[in-house]
Amino acid sequence: MNQFEVVRVVSLRENRPFHPSITNLRAPEVGDIGMILEVYTQPEAAYEVECSDPATGVTKWLEAMYPDEIELLQSEAH
Fold first, then answer.
1. Is the N-terminal amide bond of 43 cis, ω within 30° of 0?
2. Which site in 22, 39, 43, 62 is 20 to 30 Å from 69, CA atoms measured?
3. What is the pLDDT along the chain (78 residues), one digit of tens a residue?
């Protein structure tokens, strides 16, 4: 998966911490759609994913997600 690709949350690791803030109005939920903003390789593969309200553009949450938690929905490269 690459930067700016659209993904869906398919699972959440147990005991995922949630820290309310201006970029975290709520915790991620299975079924949420988001966009990869950053790709991490260390200390393990992960992706910074933003989920926003499609009607307003307001960020619902911004979280580091692991490969087993998300699936690719759409690729920019065709």
1. yes
2. 22
3. 999 999 999 999 988 888 888 788 999 999 999 999 999 999 999 999 999 999 999 999 999 999 999 999 965 554
